[in-house]
Specification:
This protein is an alpha+beta fold and about 120 residues long. It has two domains: about 1-35; about 40-115. The protein has one helix and five strands; from the N terminus they run H-E-E-E-E-E. It has a five-stranded antiparallel β-sheet, with no helix packed on it. A hairpin with a 5-residue loop joins strand 3 (about 85-95) and strand 4.
Length: about 120
């Protein structure tokens, strides 16, 4: 005989299954990205505590934020009174699938060959 579930039990089971499906989709996207040759990059932020005379071991100029998949380079701009100032960016994909445009000086390729 089949078990009869309460509404709360059914909702709980559905939520658990949705979570499993979402995690599986993220894993599939990760594997597909790696198989397409997308490179992994570290996304950084400027260290506001950094000073020119600081020891780089203790006060690096940039701090690690997160890892992402690199897709391609792009261009962005800032508006000033004198007009726009263009700068290069890296278009990266987060683990959630969201895309961000990051200034190129704030990324570091992690899987590069020894130079």
């Amino acid at each position: 005989m089949d078990k009869i579930y309460s509404k709360e039990e059914l909702e709980s089971r559905v939520m658990a299954q949705r979570k499993i499906i979402t995690e599986a989709k993220h894993e599939i996207n990760r594997i597909e990205s790696e198989s397409q040759g997308h490179r992994i990059v570290d996304v950084m932020e400027f260290n506001l505590d950094w000073k020119a005379d600081s020891d780089p071991k203790f006060f690096p100029r940039k701090k690690f934020l997160y890892r992402a998949y690199f897709h391609q380079f792009g261009v962005d701009y800032d508006e000033y009174e004198e007009g726009p100032a263009m700068f290069s960016t890296a278009i990266v994909e987060l683990g959630s699938g969201d895309l961000e445009s990051i200034p190129v000086e704030l990324i570091r390729f992690t899987n590069r060959a020894n130079l």
